[in-house]
Amino acid sequence: MTLHTSQKPYSSIAILSALIISSASLVGCNNTSSATNTVATASTSTVAALSPAVQTVVGDYASEGYAKRAQGNDWVAVMISANGSEQINIKVRARSDVKKPTCTFDGQAKLMGQDQAHGVIFETRANDSKVFLQFQNGKLTIDSDDKYALNYYCSGGASIVGEYQKLKTNLELS
User: Fold this and answer.
1) Distance from C-alpha of 13 to C-alpha of 131, rounded to nearest angstrom
2) pLDDT tens-place string over residues 124-161
3) Contact in structure between 54 and 88 (CB atoms under 8 Å)
4) 11 vs 32: CA distance, rounded Å
5) How remote is the C-alpha of 82 from its chain's centroid?
6) What is the DSSP string of 81-139?
7) How much is the pTM?
8) Which of 41, 68, 117, 124 is deepest in the core (most CB within 10 A)?
9) Are 160 and 143 in contact (CB under 8 A)?
10) Sign of torsion, CA 151 153 154 156?
């Protein structure tokens, strides 16, 4: 490139800079796929690693009536599965073998925190209300800012607010 006396020096620098940037971006394009693959692999392994809090709470929980299901007692079960390193899936189901199930709810909750005094706390939203799931000593307690917001998911005046014990065996839905 020749600089003519009529050209301003800064315009030549601008053109030169544009050429260098263009060349650098073209060289970078050749390596994009390997960089993208590395990022994708790193994020996949991060998702696969569950936090200790999520590992602790995964399992099936049931209300008090579950132990007496053979005698015909009604019960509600809460199934917790991992959904990433700090989130869980929540599935609430009630007995459905004798009658229509009284409670049904599906949702996801995010880890809020954990300490010795309160156990592990997750939060979600239902009917425009915050819902808290507290896991401590093999027990799940479901509570909400608005206790009546969780009645929506049950019939006959029931609610998913309450305490559930972690099961040592597989959940029997019937």
Assistant:
1) 60
2) 999 999 999 999 999 999 999 997 999 999 888 889 99
3) yes
4) 31
5) 7
6) EE-SSSEEEEEEEE--SSSS-SBEEEEEEEEEEEETTTEEEEEEEETTEEEEEEEETTE
7) 0.69
8) 124
9) no
10) positive
- Give the Cα separation of 108 and 119 in Å (integer): 19
Which CA distances in Å does 35 have to 22, 29, 39, 49, 121? Answer: 19, 10, 6, 22, 37
DSSP β-ladder status, 119-126 and 129-136: antiparallel
What's phi and psi for 122, nearest 5 deg? -115, 155
pLDDT in tens, 36-86: 333 333 334 444 588 999 999 999 999 998 988 888 888 899 999 999 999
Is residue 125 a contact partner of residue 117, using CB atoms and an 8 Å limit? no
The type of residue at 21 is I
Question: Are 95 and 101 within 8 A, CB to CB?
Answer: yes
- Which residue type, as a one-letter code, is found at position 76? V
The tokens for 165 are 């014990």
- For residue 21, give both structure tokens: 């940037």
